[in-house]
Specification:
Elements: E1 11-13, E2 21-23, H1 30-42, E3 46-50, H2 56-67, E4 71-74, E5 80-84, E6 94-98, H3 103-113, E7 117-123, H4 126-129, H5 134-142, E8 146-149, E9 157-162, E10 167-171, H6 177-186, E11 194-198, H7 205-217, E12 222-224, E13 229-232, E14 241-243, H8 248-261, E15 264-268, H9 281-288, E16 291-294, E17 298-302, E18 311-313, H10 321-328, E19 335-338, H11 352-360, E20 364-368, E21 371-375, E22 384-386, H12 392-399, E23 408-410, H13 423-429, E24 447-452, H14 459-470, E25 474-476, H15 477-490, H16 498-507, E26 510-513, E27 516-519, E28 522-523, H17 531-541, H18 544-561, E29 563-568, H19 571-575, E30 581-586, H20 589-599, H21 605-621, E31 634-637, H22 643-653
Parallel strand pairs: 2-15, 3-14, 6-7, 10-11, 18-19, 22-23, 24-29, 24-30, 25-29, 30-31
Antiparallel strand pairs: 1-23, 3-5, 4-5, 7-9, 8-9, 11-13, 12-13, 15-17, 16-17, 19-21, 20-21, 26-27, 27-28
Helix pairs in contact: 1-2, 1-3, 1-7, 2-3, 3-6, 6-7, 10-12, 14-22, 15-17, 16-18, 17-21, 20-21
Length: about 650
C-alpha cells in the first residue's frame, strides 16, 4: 500500500443535525470529459464540448493537448471547451507531456501519440509513475510503435512516432480497462484501423462501452464483433457538439449520504440513458434497503433509516468500492465486495487503504483476495483522523462517516481537487436543505409577487411597472423559455427533441434581467422575440425536464434577491404557490391579439390571433405545469385598462 501522503491541515466533518431533502448538481463526468476532449482533438474541424468537469485530471488532459499543439478555447467558467481538431496527427514534432496524476491522460494519450510524427515524452506525478503501464506499452510495440522506457512498465515513456497502420493486437483486460480504451480512441487514426482481442476477463466493461459511445458521437465506426473482440474502422473522427453528463462516480457520494442519514437526494442529469456504469451503484443501495428511482433524466435515492449488508460484485463499477465500504459500516449485517482485486493499482491500494481506515474508525474490516469484507461494529464507527493516501476517493468516501459520527477529520482534504474540487462545499450545503421543507415555500422574509396569465394579457408590461413601483427586481420567466428555444435553434437542435433540449437547458449559461437576455455570453434580447422562436417556445415550455430546470433557476433567482416580481404561466401554481400575492391577468381574445399585433409589426391581426389561440391550447393542455389560475390567485381582467390602472389594482391587493 502506498504511503499516507498526509499534506495540509485536517478538515473536521460536522455531523448532520437532521436528515436532508436536496437536489444536488453534480459536475461533469471526468471519464467522459477526458474521452471527449481527446477524441475532439483527434477529429477534423472544431468541436464544442460542454458540461466539462473542472478538476485536476481534466486540467491535465487540457494541458497535455495544449502541449501537443491542439488549439483550445476554454470558457471563463471552464465548463465549455472549443477544441480545434488536428485530424488525427498532432502538429508538433516534439513535446513533453505531463499527465500529472491522471491515469486516463497517460493511458489514453500514449496510443494517440503513435499516430503523430515526432518524438513525444510522456511523464507524470510520482504516484502515477508507480501505477502499471506495461500492458499498454506491450500492445503498442506489438502494433509496430517504437516506445522507450526508463523503468520497464512505468512512466516516463518516450514515443517515437511516424504514423501507424494499426492492425490486430491482443490485450489483457483484468488489470485496467483504460489500456483498451486508449487503444480504441486512437484506432480510427490508424490507416488500417484496429482489431483488439481481449485475452482475459474484462474488468469495468461499462467504461469500454462508454469509450465506444463517445467515439460514435464523433463519427467513428467501432463496436464489438463478439464478447472478446472489438473492431475499429479507419477514417478518423468528425467534429461535433458534445455535452458531458454529470459524473456518476461523484454522485455516488451524495447517494450514499442519503442512504446512511435517512435523507433524500435528487441528482438531475443522471437517468436511465446514462453512459456510466457507476450509476448502477444506486441499485446496490437499493439492495441494502434504500428507496431508488431512476427516471429518464434524474435519479432519486431516499434512505429509509435501515441498511442491511449485501454481497456485491463491483468489477464493473469499481470506483464506488470505497463509497460502498463506508456505507456498509452503517448496515445491520456484514457486506462483502468482490471482483475488484485490480483496484490495488489505483491512486492508492483501494482495498488496503479502505480496510485500514475503516479499522481506524472502529469498524472490523478484512482484505480478501479480490475485494474486502466489512463487519459493522455494534455501536457503529467512532471518530478518527482519516488518512487519505493522496486518493480523492478515500477522502470523499470517509467524509460521509462524519455526517453521522462526531470526531471525523479528513487529512489532506485538498486531494479531492483531482475530480471534485467543490466536494466539501456540496456536502456542507446538504445542511441547508433539511427534510420537511419545500423548495417552493417562500420564507416570511421574502416578498414574492406572482403574475400569471396567457399571452397578450399584459404580464410583462404590468410586472415591469409593478416591480419599479415597489422597488423590487423583475423576472420575465417566459424569456427564459424563449432563450432555451433560441439556443436550441442556434445549435441546430430540433425543439421536438425533448432529451436534447433538456440537456441544453441544464448546460446553457443564461442571464435574464435588467441587462436583457444573455445566452452563453451573447446578448439575445431581441433575437428571442423573433418569429422562429415564437413558433417553438410552446413546445420547449411543455418539456417537463426543461420546466424543472428553469423552475429551479427561477427559485434560486428569487431566493438570492429576497423576492421579486415574477411573471409567467405557472409562477403562482408551481414555482411559488406560497407567494405573498398571486395575480392572474387575463383579457379578451380580441384585446390580446391586438396588443401582440402592435408588438410585431410585420404580422397581421389574423395571424397573431391564430398563433395566440394555438399557444393557449398548448399551454392549457400540457401535462406538466399547465396554464391555470393558481389557487388563491386574484383575477384581473386587463381589457380596456391602461398599464397604470392595472398596476394600481395590483398594489391595492397587496397585504
Amino acid at each position: 500500500m502506498t504511503g499516507p501522503g498526509i499534506t495540509g491541515p485536517a478538515l473536521p466533518v460536522t455531523p448532520l443535525t437532521a436528515p436532508f431533502d436536496a437536489t444536488v448538481t453534480i459536475p461533469g463526468s471526468k471519464s467522459i470529459t477526458n474521452r471527449a476532449l481527446l477524441v475532439a482533438a483527434l477529429a477534423r474541424g472544431a468541436s464544442r464540448v460542454s458540461g466539462v468537469l473542472r478538476a485536476d485530471d481534466t486540467e491535465a488532459m487540457l494541458g497535455a493537448l495544449g502541449a501537443l499543439g491542439v488549439g483550445l478555447d476554454v470558457s471563463d467558467d471552464g465548463t465549455t471547451v472549443v477544441v480545434a481538431g488536428v485530424d488525427g496527427r498532432f502538429p508538433v514534432a516534439a513535446a513533453d507531456v505531463d499527465a500529472r496524476q491522471a491515469g486516463t491522460v497517460a493511458r489514453f494519450v500514449a496510443p494517440a501519440l503513435a499516430a503523430g510524427a515526432g518524438t513525444y515524452r510522456l511523464d507524470g506525478h510520482p504516484q502515477l509513475r508507480a501505477r502499471p503501464l506495461g500492458p499498454l506499452v506491450a500492445s503498442l510495440r506489438a502494433l509496430g510503435v517504437e516506445v522507450a522506457e526508463t523503468v520497464p512498465g512505468h512512466l516516463p515513456i518516450v514515443v517515437h512516432a511516424s504514423g501507424w497502420r494499426g492492425g490486430s493486437v491482443e490485450v489483457a483486460g483484468d488489470v485496467s480497462s483504460q489500456y483498451l480504451s486508449g487503444l480504441l480512441i486512437a484506432g480510427p487514426c490508424a490507416t488500417e484501423g484496429l482489431r483488439v482481442t481481449v485475452t482475459t476477463e474484462l474488468v469495468s466493461r461499462p467504461y469500454v462501452d462508454m469509450t465506444l459511445a463517445v467515439m460514435a458521437a464523433f463519427g467513428a465506426d467501432a463496436g464489438w464483433e463478439d464478447d472478446r473482440t472489438i473492431r475499429v474502422a479507419p477514417g478518423g473522427y468528425r467534429a461535433t457538439e458534445y455535452a458531458v453528463e454529470p459524473d456518476a462516480s461523484a454522485a455516488s457520494y451524495v447517494f450514499a449520504a442519503a442512504a446512511v442519514t435517512g435523507s433524500r437526494v435528487v441528482v438531475p442529469g443522471l437517468g436511465a440513458g446514462s453512459l456510466q456504469g457507476d450509476l448502477g451503484f444506486v441499485h446496490v443501495l437499493e439492495d441494502m434497503g434504500a428507496e431508488v428511482e431512476v427516471g429518464a433524466d434524474a435519479t432519486v435515492v431516499r434512505g429509509t433509516g435501515a441498511l442491511r449488508g449485501v454481497v456485491a460484485d463491483l468489477r464493473d463499477l469499481s470506483d464506488t468500492v470505497p463509497t460502498l465500504a463506508v456505507t456498509a459500516a452503517f448496515a445491520s449485517s456484514p457486506t462483502t465486495i468482490t471482483g475488484v482485486g485490480f483496484i490495488r493499482n489505483k491512486e492508492s491500494d483501494r482495498i488496503g487503504a479502505v480496510v485500514a481506515e475503516l479499522r481506524r474508525c472502529g469498524v472490523e474490516a478484512t482484505e480478501d483476495p479480490d475485494g474486502l469484507t466489512v463487519r459493522p461494529a455494534p455501536g457503529g464507527p467512532h471518530g478518527a483522523r482519516v488518512q487519505t493516501y493522496e486518493d480523492h476517493r478515500i477522502a470523499m468516501s470517509f467524509a460521509l462517516v462524519g455526517l453521522r459520527v462526531p470526531g471525523i477529520e479528513i487529512l489532506d482534504p485538498g486531494c479531492v481537487a483531482k475530480t471534485f474540487p467543490e466536494y466539501f462545499a456540496v456536502l456542507d450545503a446538504l445542511r441547508d436543505s433539511p427534510a420537511g421543507t419545500d423548495p417552493d415555500r417562500v420564507p416570511a422574509s421574502m416578498r414574492v409577487i406572482a403574475i400569471d396569465g396567457p399571452a397578450g394579457s399584459g404580464k410583462s408590461t404590468v410586472s415591469r411597472a409593478l416591480a419599479e413601483r415597489l422597488g423590487l427586481e423583475y423576472l420575465d420567466t417566459g424569456a427564459m423559455y424563449r432563450a432555451i428555444a433560441f439556443a436550441a435553434i442556434r445549435r441546430g437542435i430540433d425543439p421536438e427533441d425533448a432529451a436534447a433540449v433538456a440537456r441544453l437547458a441544464r448546460e446553457v449559461e443564461l442571464e435574464v434581467g435588467e441587462r436583457g437576455v444573455v445566452i452563453d455570453g451573447v446578448d439575445a434580447t431581441l433575437e428571442i422575440r423573433g418569429p422562429e422562436v415564437t413558433r417553438s417556445v410552446s413546445t420547449v415550455a411543455a418539456n417537463p425536464d426543461v420546466r424543472r430546470e428553469l423552475v429551479s433557476r427561477q427559485r434560486e433567482w428569487a431566493h438570492l434577491r429576497g423576492g421579486g416580481v415574477l411573471e409567467g404561466r405557472d409562477i403562482g401554481s408551481v414555482v411559488f404557490p406560497d407567494a405573498q400575492l398571486k395575480v392572474y391577468l387575463t383579457a379578451s381574445a380580441e384585446a390580446r391579439a391586438q396588443r401582440r399585433a402592435k408588438e410585431v409589426a410585420d404580422l397581421d391581426y389574423e395571424t397573431v390571433a391564430a398563433d395566440i389561440a394555438r399557444r393557449d391550447a398548448v399551454d392549457s393542455n400540457r401535462a406538466d405545469s399547465p396554464l391555470v389560475e393558481a389557487e388563491g390567485a386574484v383575477v384581473v381582467d386587463t381589457t380596456g385598462l391602461s398599464v397604470d390602472e392595472v398596476v394600481a389594482r395590483v398594489v391595492e391587493l397587496l397585504p
